[in-house]
Amino acid sequence: MSQHGKLSVIMVVMLLAGCGTAARPPVAVVPPATATSTSPSAAGVNATDVMFVQMMLPHHRQGIQIVRIAKDREPREEVRGRLINLGSQQGIVTSPGDLPYGVSKAGAIYITRQIAVDYAKHLIVCNCISPGKIVTGAGGLAQDPARLEYQRRRTPWPRFGRPQDVANAAVFLASDRASFITGSNLVIDGGWLAG
Questions:
Q1: Has residue 194 been placed in a domain?
Q2: Residue 189 to residues 57, 88, 104, 193: CA-CA distances in angstroms?
Q3: What pLDDT was estimated at residue 189?
Q4: Is 101 a residue of the active site?
Q5: What is the mean pLDDT of each run of 10 residues along the chain (195 residues)?
Q6: Number of domains the chain contains
Q7: Going along the chain, which residue ranges are E strands?
Q8: Catalytic residue among 101, 110, 119, 150
Q9: Hey, which residues does 81 pair with through a beta bridge?
Q10: CATH of the domain at 144
Q11: Is residue 1 in a domain?
Q12: Domain range enclosing 125
């Protein structure tokens, strides 16, 4: 935080080493000034107070260290800081042939609950967002025709998710409107898990 100044929200993407094709550093921080936002000020969130962190498991200890530092800050309203982990529907249900990704997302969901319980007394809020099929333009398995057809049949909502759907959930969880929500996993999947 000394590097980026005031910090209210940390968005974390956790992956197992070896997920994806691109080489990733163990911990990558996107400074608040360069992070894009989705009109967070409407919900009382200042985009310059948000940090995005991508970390590879087992380097999650560095994320826990960020939470420990945040617990010593002065609370804004009734919350000192908010951690929003990015899980996935694949952390809840299986996806054949994609074990490392599913395990990393299940880990993100578990870590969310553990941090919420361990740091609630310090006024740290921790939640997770778990998207289902979100159209991002990613290649590979995300564009496999057989998988896409299965996902279309399985998703009750008449369209796949959009990045804006995930961003809207993050803005809500980062706002003071969600100050009593902690340890939750908000699934954004168009009803897939409900059906």
A1: no
A2: 25, 9, 18, 7
A3: 97
A4: yes
A5: 54 59 45 43 48 52 60 66 91 87 90 93 92 86 84 94 94 91 97 93
A6: 1
A7: 9-16, 27-30, 50-57, 81-86, 124-131, 185-188
A8: 101
A9: 124
A10: 3.40.50.720
A11: no
A12: 9-188
